[in-house]
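debug: dumping io for the single-chain case to check the tokenizer round-trip. Nothing else runs in this session.
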Amino acid sequence: MVLIWTKETRRRLDVIFVPESILNDMIETHLERKFPIDTQKTCFVNSDNDLIGIPPENQIIQLLKEILDKNILMGGFDMRMKMPHHWFNNIKCCEFIMTRNGSVPSNDVFECDFIITFFRVEGRAKKSIQEIKKRPWISLSKSDEMEIIKIFKDAEVKNLKEFVFIMEHIHPTAKRAYSKRH
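debug: decoded output
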């Protein structure tokens, strides 16, 4: 399944295809803290449980939508996108190491950004559908295809310039130190 987010600004329309599998991987790894033993990952935390609480999933998705809405997108590489901490000031990040006994947090809690990899599609509805179908981790239903076609027809009526992106990876990254736990 693919989520389709659109953003219209001035005469520009961004169409962002967010594969559910990419979103689920980010949530599983960086929110639910499920990753292989002896690896270290940056994970989202909130103020619960001495700054290692797990923020609600819907809050992270809302944060991601807000970031995509506030940034001009480009494609083909990792884009560092700033988190709007003034709206989501209770969400921070912390490094966790996975051990046989579970995840162990580091002492530092910090504000973080998202790093998102986009693939820029050079084309409209037909090319977008072709590019999505090339990726085996994305399932595209007939209703998804019809929605994609409708988005481009509506953009043509409004005389908008379309920019089409497929999100390929997303993860949080360190920004600057926030506090030190005792």
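debug: round-trip ok. The two ends are 43 Å apart (CA to CA).
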